[in-house]
Records
---
Amino acid sequence: MRNVRAIGSAACLILLVGTVLPGCGPATLVVGIAPGGQQITATAVQRDGRLGSRRVAVIDVSGLIVNADQPGLLSTGVNPVSTLAESLDWAAADPRTAAVVLRINSPGGTVTASDLMYREVMEFRGRTGKPVVAAMMDVAASGGYYLACAADHVIAQPTTVTGSVGVVLQTVSVKPALERIGVRAEALVSGPNKAAGSPLETLDDGQRAVLQGLVDGFYRDFVAVVRERRTAVAAESWPIVADGRVFTGRRAYELGLVDAVGDLDDAFAEAKRRAGIDHADLFVLHRPLDYVGSVYARAPAPASGAATQLNLVQINLERGLLTGDAGFYYLWRPSLD
């Protein structure tokens, strides 16, 4: 089934075209009108049963963390930074929302976007006093873990992949291949380091040192955040915590990188406890046309290595870059390294 959305100023035209499959009924054509506004809304997935109960809001951060629209089928996709900021504003403005569960399923993303989202959560906590509990799903690594550090309490599934404290700048040079076919690229630059990292050149030692210095600086920033927020990590554990490796949720708990091993029910309970309430309704925040049938309905899988690479290629091509991986990333992507 294909869902085609035509967005107008006031409404969306929803065209659902069914496909005839063996054993299925005839194809159907359904045309209807749905609200065109894309403001964050909330759907209850668990009711307490008490009139006027407080709320715990689930906010999802899934896939690649970038400050740009992620490509989507038949659409420009969504901007994860903007979506998080809008969702936090909704939770801040709603007087019934007492706490937030930040559900993370991400291998990380760009250095800047990860830091922006971290700061959004920290600012929300300081401005509202409402607690934030991070609930890690399949993956909450590198930039995803950086973001989790902004929460008051971090819970990982025993099978979560987390950690990956580090920075990557991937470069590629096509210069040798071009020279073999008789193509020579020349660039007029204002200084010896202006074209450092260009795919049409090869790095010399000086350029490599400049870029390595930037990587080292971003790495120090990452480690400083983890040291400040994860005080339970023992001094003797830092060499392995900060060397870029990943851990299971259970191992992360043993090292002090997370506060507990559990699931969404545990995150919900912890959010209520920190908010000082015994009862609450559980709501998922989402865009109006997203289907939310349960608390798990808005928890898409993190991007695979191939999908991550395709997203990076598109994002960087849109910025006029020639390499698919240009930029500094807090990102875990084992299938590409």
Note: The chain has a mean pLDDT of 80.
---
Amino acid sequence: VIFLLANLFFMLLVIWVIHLSNFSLDLFQKPLDITRLLVRMGNIYITILALCSFQFWLGLCFRNFIIPTAVGFALWLAGMMMTFEFKSKLIDFFPYSFQTFAFMPNAQLKMTQVVWTSLGYTALFLLLGFLDFRRRRLAA
């Protein structure tokens, strides 16, 4: 949530700086579509949930931050390559490529399916993390 609020703040800051540098654009006189902005931010939040829950589970498994960070970076890089370089059909089911759907105009038709898939992955990874954590607590 802090990421989304910071994103909105810095976006407003950039708009203000652009407005000050080029008055002819007249950015503050254009209408702001709040509902579209909130829907987009909600979609971004939901599509990132699967990624965050998997990273959380990795953190519980390895009990440090270096391995989950390295695995997360490698999977994120693979997701970006699958999306932009290889144009794979598997990006609809790969959690590390979900966040790109909110910014690609030609992928907006798949957004509902990606949101539900992300929520499903989130539930699955949180359940696996809970079961793994409970198993470790009972064994210790």
Note: The helical segments are 2-21, 34-62, 66-85, 111-139.
